[in-house]
Write a structure and sequence with these properties.
- The protein folds into two domains: 7-69; 79-188, no CATH class.
- Helix 2 (33-48) packs antiparallel against helix 3 and helix 4 crosses helix 7.
- It is an alpha+beta fold and 225 residues long.
- Helix content is 40%, strand content 11%.
- A hairpin with a 2-residue loop joins strand 2 (95-102) and strand 3.
- The longest helix has 18 residues, at 142-159.
Amino acid sequence: MGKCPAPCDGSIPLSQYRRMIADALRFALGSRQAYFHTWQQEMQNAAERQKYEQAAAIKQRIERARQADHRSFAIIRNIADFHYLIIQRGTTAGRVKPFFARAGTITPGIEVKLKDVEQSATKWVQQCETPAPPLDQTLQTNVGRQETSEQIWLVSHFLFRKEPPGLFFPRSQCPQPDELTELIHERFDHKPTSTSQKGTQPVSPPFKSTKNKSANPLAEPPDAQ
């Protein structure tokens, strides 16, 4: 398909491929202006040399790369900084459940009634601000790396939605307990949509912790209540 530089068959050296991956990570994490400037120069140089196909290809690259300025890409960060407080609807109406993502590892909290959120909010904020365990301990095995990757994907899957279900707060933007309480009531203090309403779907929590000690503490959505 012409999209992979194919280091696996020796088309380019592995060292060059690693530099390309490092460049892609830097670009994704926000260091973009220097890249856009370089590509603009390359496009202009190619056009001046009448290399119009090359100039068009660079222009297409720039247009695609501009999509990285979409608001969803603001969530991209290093694993050590992938740190979120997540609040989801509980297993029954009138309840919510917190989840804590630290360095990509998700830990479920205790489900509480909405009327008791104010008592729990301070503890949740404190847990959100708790430093993550050293990455060396988590990523030193293939199993640990796979589990972390799966859990980061699960959180990112919902973050990249236009309207993510529940509430997601990166550690740097975690609200104070009183504000968190207000936001939770604002988001969840209403009855789920009835299945009897035409053209609507029942609201159910996208996350549910499993009873067994599985690698993924967030499982598939439960059946609609």
